[in-house]
Specification:
Elements (H helix, E strand, L loop, with lengths): L1 E4 L4 H13 L4 E4 L10 H6 L7 E4 L2 E3 L2 H9 L12 H12 L3 H7 L3 H21 L4 H17 L3 H22 L12 H15 L3 H6 L2 H10 L3 H11 L3 H18 L4
Parallel strand pairs: 1-2
Antiparallel strand pairs: 1-3, 3-4
Helix pairs in contact: 1-3, 1-9, 1-12, 4-9, 5-8, 6-7, 8-11, 12-13
The structure holds glutathione.
The site of glutathione has 11 residues, from helix 1.
Amino acid sequence: MQLYQHPYSLDSQKVRLALEEKGLDYWPYSINPLKAKNLDSRIFRMNPTGKLPVFLNGQHIILDTLSILQYIDSIHEPLGGDAVDREKMLLWMRSIDSWNPKLFTLSHVPQKYRLFFSRFQRRAAIARMAECPDLAGKYHLKLHSAYATEEELKDKELINSSNELLIKILDAAEDQLSSTDFLAGGAFSMADAMFIPILARINLLNLEEEYIGSRSHLLDYWNRVKKRPSYHAVIGKYFSGWRKYKTLYATYSSVWVRNLFRRY
Ligand SMILES: N[C@@H](CCC(=O)N[C@@H](CS)C(=O)NCC(=O)O)C(=O)O
């Protein structure tokens, strides 16, 4: 199994947590979207939306995160075994999947940094388009979606409704975790693999107190899952404490240099 992914990508984190928890062997290829590596033609040919993750097993390619997790869970024994209510798990997975973290994340990033990266990504898309004219149509779509995101970020109602959906999910989790240790019962399941990256994103954006700290069962769950080896391998290693500044600074300085030398 091969996984084109990056620690910055929340959907990549979901898939890697699932693979780590199942103890499966896989090759994780790091593709940094902030450095526009997802626009390299080799990746873009596999997935012309440029989105991560891209999951490959032999000739089989899956792009949809929920489908990747269901596929992973079908290998050997399902995660959590009998301690997991499968119907509940699927309901949780669909509910979590319905929330797109893009607007929430970008609306909490200072505009200066957001524009710095989005400008670089647009320039990279134009450069790749010139190198691979056969993919020009797809790169154009990518540029359009970058401009569309800028417009969406001006729409306060859209941002509010994304925020409200997140709060609904967190409230439901708080309710659930008052009676079970994990989202779908007494053991870690694919629902947890999908949910933990959301908590990690809240934490990365320094919003933990507001969104997690105010919900006591959720806070207890968050403190427990952060201790799991899978969390360390997929998220903690890059973002715990001071590490997040190191990770973000490494990307920022690399893009800064490439901008300086116009190496898109
Ligand atoms: N294909 C995924 C969506 C993946 C997705 O939205 N990925 C984001 C990161 S979590 C991404 O790659 N963004 C970079 C970009 O759009 O250029 C799904 O349908 O579940």
